Hints:
The chain is α/β, with parallel strands linked by helices. It is built from 8 helices and 6 strands; from the N terminus they run βααβαβααααβαββ. It has helices spanning about 15, 30-45, 60-65, 90-100, 100-110, 120-125, 130-135, 150-160; strands at about 5-10, 50-55, 75, 140-145, 175-180, 185-190. The longest helix is centred in the first third of the chain and has 17 residues, at about 30-45. It is globular and about 50 Å long. The structure holds 6-O-phosphono-beta-D-fructofuranose. 6-O-phosphono-beta-D-fructofuranose binds near residues 21, 81, 82, 84 and 167.
Amino acid sequence: PRPILLTRHGESCDNVRGRIGSDSVLSDAGELYSKKLANFIEKRLKSERAASIWTSTLQRTIITASPIAGFPKIQWRALDEINAGVCDGMTYEEIKKNMPEEYEARKKDKLRYRYPRGESYLDVIQRLEPVIIELERQRAPVVVISHQAVLRALYAYFADRPLKEIPHIEVPLHTIIEIQMGVTGVQEKRYKLMD
Ligand code: F6P
């Protein structure tokens, strides 16, 4: 069985400030994670010559992948974080204060809520289809370095979790979720590399 390793990018400066979306670089903790991740991946996939590293097109995932040596890296726009549209770069507090109707609408139906000029979880799930098809076709391990909303959707697909749970699945920072697909079904391991 070949593993799929899912991880969010290392903590970004916007994560620290509580700002959603955008395209910031990593915090010091995030930089440290990128090194620990590289170490982990290089050991875990040592004899896996055909393995590959998939990132989004946002710099926080590309920077997180950068210390990993020895494997090809592929950027997918479909792995970019949910597009928060007019709310991109805001904190949840700012959205609540300045756009209370939007805040409430999202709280009520996070799965279907679409940010004005942005995306919903359902949109994200749909655009991930080609990524999932390609992941299913791979014979070798794949490391996916992406973002919270996207990884919730990918994880739910492989772990067979219901649609309505997707926006609420826990995908913490600095943690690798390893999924193994074998004959007896799907097995999962989590590696927390930092506190
Ligand atoms: O806060 C990090 C982040 O990846 C944001 O960029 C994104 O908007 C958010 O998480 C998605 O999580 P939620 O759907 O819970 O707001």
